[in-house]
Write a structure and sequence with these properties.
This protein folds into two domains: about 40 residues; about 60 residues. Helices cover about 80% and strands about 5% of the residues. The protein contains two helices and two strands.
Length: about 100
């Protein structure tokens, strides 16, 4: 069981190193392995990153608006419940007053 776990950790570390090797710019870490320079995917990475940021901002904005709309709905429901409770309390008070008046007679 440990062999499989250690193997997966080693594979994970190798994938991290390979990914970093692909996107770290060559001018930052000038290393060449088997004729492949570091940062060979840097431009593609920048393009993907720059292309992904605006949709992520839009999604975050939509999420914030949705959450706030739901909070407004909850506040409205709470106000309605409080209003109903006040009405019920007032009805109970009226009943008690009637009972008191009848008992005094």
């Amino acid at each position: 069981m440990c062999k499989g776990l250690i193997g997966k950790i080693i594979i994970g570390i190798l994938l991290i190193i390979a990914g970093l090797y692909a996107i770290i710019p060559h001018w930052l870490v000038p290393v060449t392995v088997a004729g492949i320079k570091t940062g060979f995917a840097w431009e593609a990475f920048k393009t993907v990153l720059l292309g992904a940021i605006p949709p992520m901002i839009i999604i975050i904005g939509i999420l914030i608006v949705w959450i706030e709309i739901e909070e407004l709905k909850i506040e409205k429901m709470e106000e309605e419940i409080e209003h109903e409770l006040k009405e019920d309390e007032e009805k109970e008070e009226r009943k008690e007053r009637r009972i008191r008046k009848k008992s005094k007679r």
